[in-house]
Amino acid sequence: MAVVIDGKEAAASVIAAVTEAAGALEKDAGVKPGLAVVIVGDDPASHAYVNSKSKMAKQCGFNSIQHSLPEDTTQEDLEKLVAELNADPAIHGVLVQLPLPKHLDAEPVILSISPGKDVDGLHVVNAGKIAAGDLSTGLISCTPAGAMLLVNRIHGRDLSGLSAVVIGRSNLFGKPMALLLLAANATVTMAHSRTKDLASVCRNADILVAAVGRPQMVKADWVKPGATVIDVGINRVPAPDKGEGKTRLVGDVAYAEAAEVAGAITPVPGGVGPMTIAMLMANTVIAAYRAAGKAAPRF
Ligand SMILES: Nc1nc2c(c(=O)[nH]1)N[C@@H](CN(C=O)c1ccc(C(=O)N[C@@H](CCC(=O)O)C(=O)O)cc1)CN2
């Protein structure tokens, strides 16, 4: 049976370190990290994530601000709000919750965030720094940064000699994750929906990372015995056993059967998910240290 990689516990230790770093910055430089979270529309899941972010920011000792905009917000108004937050010296991190309502284009909104305040790490300047192998002067996208910390818990920081397969090629996760694994010296393959014989590609992986958005797609016979499996999927599926209309959360990996083969595996829930919010707090405190002209902590 695989070791279960506990994302809640890992996230709690990041949050403890962030809280300590925030306290030290306020004491030494009189700067309280400030996080502004912007949400547009009424999507209940997005509101739940944003509320968790605002609550966690307060818990870390940050100045936490939430802007909830109506569904019919225009592109211009959203970008105007981002410009105001960019100019506000009390705000060190700006985040726009995704997805946006269909009439809005996320890309120009992300590009309108100052790269130094882009605590989601999605601006092309921050993405480009990772691509160039610079992991120390930009801000790294939260979910891949969190997934890497979980990989490091099993394998350490140097992945020399290990093969890694990332299934999924999104800008939000797959591409930055592959680059982080490469920067740690893993031999990386990016697989996706057009990959031929995906199962056999995955079976070569010492580290298998699934981010496909398809419930339980990765089966036990896709997993190399002893491999580390990182499941980034968050899929809500019907759970008739819990009652009519009830749902449960599952990942992109068929967890119970994959855990019989893997050496280590992240659960869903309680794996990569909690790391996303912890790394957002880490990026905010890093941005605040840099704005104060101080050397930023590493997490
Ligand atoms: N601007 C952004 N938008 C979105 C991001 C993001 O990183 N930046 N990621 C996702 C949603 N998300 C954060 O925003 C997020 C998703 C899931 C979790 C999490 O902790 N999941 C739990 C389960 C929660 C549940 O019960 O529903 C887990 O996996 O254990 C945190 C954050 C899309 N949008």
Automatic annotation (TrEMBL):
The keyword Signal does not apply. CDD domains: NAD_bind_m-THF_DH_Cyclohyd. Pathway: One-carbon metabolism; tetrahydrofolate interconversion. NADP(+) binds at G168, R169, S170, I234. Pfam families: THF_DHG_CYH, THF_DHG_CYH_C. Keywords: Amino-acid biosynthesis, Histidine biosynthesis, Hydrolase, Methionine biosynthesis, Multifunctional enzyme, NADP, One-carbon metabolism, Oxidoreductase, Purine biosynthesis. Residues 5-120 form the Tetrahydrofolate dehydrogenase/cyclohydrolase catalytic domain. Catalyzes the oxidation of 5,10-methylenetetrahydrofolate to 5,10-methenyltetrahydrofolate and then the hydrolysis of 5,10-methenyltetrahydrofolate to 10-formyltetrahydrofolate. Belongs to the tetrahydrofolate dehydrogenase/cyclohydrolase family. Homodimer. This is Bifunctional protein FolD.
